[in-house]
What we know:
Radius of gyration: 24 Å
Distance between the termini: 41 Å
Order of helices and strands: HHHHHHHHHHHHHHHHHH
Number of helices: 18
Helix content: 55-70%
Structural class: mainly alpha
Strand content: under 5%
Largest sheet: none
Number of strands: 0
Amino acid sequence: MIRHLVVPTYLLACLLLGGASAAGYTVNLLLQLAAIPIIGWALWTLAQTGIPTAIRAPLALWALLVLIALVQLIPLPPSIWTLLPGRGSVVEGYRLLEMPLPWLPLSLAPGNSLASLLWLLPAFAIFLATVVLGAFRGRGVAIVVVAVTLVSVALGALQVVSGGSAYIYEITNYGAAVGFFANSNHNATLLLVSIPFLAALQKALLKRHRSPRNVSAIRLMISGAYAVILVGLLINASLAGIGLGVPITLVTWLVFGKQRPIFRRLALGITAIGTVAAILTIVIGPFGNNLFGKQGDQANFSRQTSFSRTLDAAGDYLPVGSGVGTFQSIYRTQEPLSTVTPFYMNHAHSDWIELLLETGLPGIALAVLFLIWWSVRARAVWGADEREPFAQAAIIAGTAIMLHSMVDYPLRTAALSAVFALCVGLVSGVRPYVRPRPASATKSGARHISI
């Protein structure tokens, strides 16, 4: 059915074209424009059928996210906005210019806030197309994720050996395997996401094809794909990618593997020990990580410096935040003049810390509500009598994205925000759309044969 190609096709477009946050504005605009008819179709369907109970909670969370951003755009009288924390410099600027204080919104960069709302369109389209339209097949979206990942590994290898060519974006990590992304860490996130989806795809294929020849071919094909992903993580050289790759692989093996009950506890122990060992190795190992390691000449652009300055700024703007999309403007006010250069920090390298700065306590409260919902749904998926493999894969993949977001900003790209929205949709418990049978087809009646 053509309907089931909507999510895989649009997801493919997001993965191929939406790999940058500070570049690729033209292709991201195309993705946003393409999202509008999908969103319109889904909203029209909701108006006709109502909101199913299963998707009310995630829809409400999406609505709250948009509401927070929209409230930040409402103009406020000077008697109100001047009382908000962090606005003293704005008041002083108008005083020096001898200009009367105008009505201003909560956001200190309303244009950027509006642009940030538009950047949500691809993710919102994927989510609505999944939970409202059912315009997907589990195998279809898994094939897209895995296929793009494998091609991205090949492209990344070409980028490494070509000496500066084969890169898609002008602003990128030259010399690193970035694939279809501008940032090598974001390519690592895609590699992590592909691991559980590949396992779910294997389970689905083996369920459909039971002949020994087909089973052997599927296992060989999947093993080759895993090998390519492993090579991709190694040549990508993202510390977070390699560190998270160990627990993600072990958890995937624990969920989709067939361990005997007697070895189940052993498998759990191996997963726990392997996870802790991987994290400690990255944190205290001699790999030059710029969060916990010794800071060198690039200290001003390290995560340690970025986290510290962003948290300081977040404290200045609590409890309401500085406004969605204002990070760059606010961060520059935290930099000492002696360290200012033509280069700048485009994001905090932590989606969670940047969320705290831009949305304050309302944004953090929304994040807590989402994590509670995610935990409840994860428990429901694992407790189901018939477990849905692609929903299980979505839980692992979505968790991987959230963990990587602690030390990077994958959700600021259309590609990975679309993948995360897909995971949220799959975790909601929805199923692909099935065309209703005509009433005449369901009626049973007596038939007579006359001779």
